[in-house]
Amino acid sequence: MDLLDTLTAKGLRGETPTREEALAVLATTDDELLDVVAAAGRVRRRWFGRRVKLNYLVNLKSGLCPEDCSYCSQRLGSKAEILKYTWLKPGQAAEAAKAGVSGGAKRVCLVASGRGPTDRDIDRVTDTVAAIKEADPAVEICACLGLLSDNQAERLKAAGVDAYNHNLNTSEGTYGDIATTHTYADRVDTVQKAHGAGLSACSGLIAGMGESDEDLVDVVFALRELGSDSVPVNFLIPFEGTPLAKEWNLSPQRCLRILAMVRFVNPDTEVRIAGGREVHLRSMQPLGLHLANSIFLGDYLTSEGQAGQTDLDMIADAGFEVEGMGESTLPRHRADIAAAATGGCGTGAAGGGCGTAAAPGEGADATVGGGCGTGGGCGPCGGHGHAAPAATADQTAEEAADQAAGETAAAADEVRTDLVRVRRRGAGTELAPNA
Ligand code: SF4
């Protein structure tokens, strides 16, 4: 297939495809799916080998947010029966983080619900970072606290935070359809503030909210343009009690096409499968590892994932390996760019901090949540995709597509409480974390 040959060649050179090529990936058929995964998988292995970076979410403050992000179980007016609690104490957060690190995570993502942190909240996070780094100085810390005010990013950087997550979530053109209490421009501003302060920028998207292919391509190119070092790809978890509870638009095949497109547009950037992995990819999760080089271990912010040990078994069974603390996530040239942009600390380099990226192809190196977006945090979610059926002997492909559309519409009337498990263990409970 000419398209895939072109995309592979560009990806192996670290080049970005055209917008039309990215759209064409999303338009491929199920018959072409394994070829798409194989092509994007070559690009993934070129820059990240078979390494999988594990990230671990700690929800520092859950629920009761004044913002109205429609995908989020913590939003204003949410009826989702999630855990609700105010700030964890530093020792409690460090205890939760320790479980994730013991399970193999090299990055801990500290998330808090809310529009953005107060200066007192920055103090709390500072104390929490100190407690975590006292136990393990090599662990990477990403903060996800919502919209940042002036000088807060600098304070987080001084506290030892390595990265800041704030997702764009969807295209600029449709942002007003999913949230009204802040704007797309507000989100861009926070990503730029974080980057400007020397924090590695983590910013991604949520798929499955009813957006078009053009919207997906728009947001993925915008993230590339912003210079995000890691791109979390969330698949909407339609929580009962939120406005998007009936948005079950994703199939495992659709999720794989989206991940492949994100990989082709970001060949040498960390691509993470974030919230909704288990719910939407289901038994196809191992194929996702051929596209993304990073996942969350265990549970998300307000929903449960599969057991941490199941994540580790899946990685081993699929022939991948967990990325170690001493390895840099990004390939050397990208780590150098990140280091230059952040004044020396790049992303990914564990431990020492600066630019220790491994050579391409060898082993070198947040979310919804508090603010934003990724998996655990603010929203993601789950879904039970409805794959298009193959045409029967009596059916044309067009008729089969119509049938699929009808089934999707029927599915959109459902609330799938069987697929979305609200988190009832770990941070904010008396039960042990899942890691
Ligand atoms: S995504 Fe973040 S800012 Fe939006 S409602 Fe959820 S917790 Fe609040």
UniProtKB/TrEMBL annotation:
<feature type="binding site">
    <location>
        <position position="72"/>
    </location>
    <ligand>
        <name>[4Fe-4S] cluster</name>
    </ligand>
</feature>
<dbReference type="InterPro" id="IPR002684">
    <property type="entry name" value="Biotin_synth/BioAB"/>
</dbReference>
<dbReference type="InterPro" id="IPR006638">
    <property type="entry name" value="Elp3/MiaA/NifB-like_rSAM"/>
</dbReference>
<feature type="domain" description="Radical SAM core">
    <location>
        <begin position="47"/>
        <end position="277"/>
    </location>
</feature>
<dbReference type="InterPro" id="IPR010722">
    <property type="entry name" value="BATS_dom"/>
</dbReference>
<dbReference type="InterPro" id="IPR007197">
    <property type="entry name" value="rSAM"/>
</dbReference>
<dbReference type="Pfam" id="PF06968">
    <property type="entry name" value="BATS"/>
</dbReference>
<keyword id="KW-0479">Metal-binding</keyword>
<keyword id="KW-0411">Iron-sulfur</keyword>
<comment type="function">
    <text>Catalyzes the conversion of dethiobiotin (DTB) to biotin by the insertion of a sulfur atom into dethiobiotin via a radical-based mechanism.</text>
</comment>
<comment type="similarity">
    <text>Belongs to the radical SAM superfamily. Biotin synthase family.</text>
</comment>
<dbReference type="InterPro" id="IPR058240">
    <property type="entry name" value="rSAM_sf"/>
</dbReference>
<dbReference type="Pfam" id="PF04055">
    <property type="entry name" value="Radical_SAM"/>
</dbReference>
<comment type="pathway">
    <text>Cofactor biosynthesis; biotin biosynthesis; biotin from 7,8-diaminononanoate: step 2/2.</text>
</comment>
<dbReference type="GO" id="GO:0004076">
    <property type="term" value="F:biotin synthase activity"/>
</dbReference>
<keyword id="KW-0001">2Fe-2S</keyword>
<feature type="binding site">
    <location>
        <position position="272"/>
    </location>
    <ligand>
        <name>[2Fe-2S] cluster</name>
    </ligand>
</feature>
<feature type="binding site">
    <location>
        <position position="142"/>
    </location>
    <ligand>
        <name>[2Fe-2S] cluster</name>
    </ligand>
</feature>
<feature type="binding site">
    <location>
        <position position="202"/>
    </location>
    <ligand>
        <name>[2Fe-2S] cluster</name>
    </ligand>
</feature>
<keyword id="KW-0004">4Fe-4S</keyword>
<protein>
    <recommendedName>
        <fullName>Biotin synthase</fullName>
        <ecNumber>2.8.1.6</ecNumber>
    </recommendedName>
</protein>
<feature type="binding site">
    <location>
        <position position="65"/>
    </location>
    <ligand>
        <name>[4Fe-4S] cluster</name>
    </ligand>
</feature>
<feature type="binding site">
    <location>
        <position position="109"/>
    </location>
    <ligand>
        <name>[2Fe-2S] cluster</name>
    </ligand>
</feature>
<feature type="compositionally biased region" description="Low complexity">
    <location>
        <begin position="402"/>
        <end position="412"/>
    </location>
</feature>
<keyword id="KW-0949">S-adenosyl-L-methionine</keyword>
<feature type="binding site">
    <location>
        <position position="69"/>
    </location>
    <ligand>
        <name>[4Fe-4S] cluster</name>
    </ligand>
</feature>
<comment type="subunit">
    <text>Homodimer.</text>
</comment>
<keyword id="KW-0408">Iron</keyword>
<keyword id="KW-0093">Biotin biosynthesis</keyword>
<dbReference type="InterPro" id="IPR013785">
    <property type="entry name" value="Aldolase_TIM"/>
</dbReference>
<feature type="compositionally biased region" description="Low complexity">
    <location>
        <begin position="386"/>
        <end position="395"/>
    </location>
</feature>
<keyword id="KW-0808">Transferase</keyword>
<feature type="region of interest" description="Disordered">
    <location>
        <begin position="385"/>
        <end position="414"/>
    </location>
</feature>
